[in-house]
Amino acid sequence: VLDIPKYYLDNYGVTNIEFQHSHLAQGTIDPDPAFLAEMKARVDGVGARANQINLEIGQITQLSTPELRDAWLTRARKWADAATILGATRLLINQTGLSDANKADAIAAWKAFQDYARPKGIKISAECRPFSPTSYGPPADYPNRARVIWGLMQECAEAAGGYTNVDLGRTGRFLNQQEVHDAIKGTMKTNAGSIHVKMTPHWDLGTAVRFTESLGFKGLYTIEVDFDPAVRMVYNTVLANLS
Q: How far is residue 96's CA from residue 149's CA, in Å, rounded to a whole number?
């Protein structure tokens, strides 16, 4: 993982790097300041910067008691402290399964974490999550789908003083171009400065990028696909459609 900054620069000319917390933790539960300082030196050495750390440290929708929330926050705050070592200004949390039944618990955890991170100059965001037809009704019920995929997330972000990071998703998350554009526009006011991009036959990525640019977006398009041939497809599409 220490070679990633140079690899991204050499192969893609990319100098903004998004990390998974598990890669930085190197098999431990909590961040290691010494390792993070070493990674920061590698990032600085190629003129890059750490854009975001994705925290898979538990779902904020499952913190139904003060004890569970406090345990999650104890760990989350360590990653906010770690982000300052690396220079990252965004942390992405997991809100899978967000619903009206658990949104109060999710907001409480999200707000407490954002309040801790804000003085450090760090934005705490969440991303769109997949639609579940078994839990939320038929796929054709578009208004319900939109609220499940991004509407509830947006409500919670505003209530918590947090941020959002639209994930365009693979097949099944958004069924057509209009759904993608609605999500991008609906969450733009709380966007943390990043959008996760992929490709699918259900909608066109180039059209989505042009629409996002038309809204005045000045953030980053973070590619989330596996293996170089697929990365190149997304990479070339994004570059061809930037303003």
A: 10
Cα atoms in the Cβ-side hemisphere of radius 13 Å centred on 51? 18
Q: What's the CA gap between 161 and 225, in Å, rounded?
A: 30
The span from the CA of 70 to the CA of 234, in Å, is: 39
Instruction: Report the C-alpha gap between 48 and 17 in whole angstroms.
Output: 8
Pairing verdict, β 49-59 and 90-94: parallel
For 123-152, how does the pLDDT look when each residue is reduced to its tens digit (9 = 90+)? 999 998 865 555 555 555 555 788 888 999
Helical pair 228-241 and 4-12, crossing angle rounded to 10 deg:
60
Residues 166-185: tens digit of each pLDDT: 999 888 788 899 999 999 99
* Continuous segment of H or E residues that includes residue 95: none
222 membership: H or E segment, kind and range: strand 220-223
Q: How far apart are CA 49 and CA 42, in angstroms?
A: 10
In this structure, what token pair is assigned to residue 187? 């969450």
* Residue 7 to residue 103: CA distance in whole angstroms: 40
CA angle 8, 126, 210 (to 5 degrees): 60
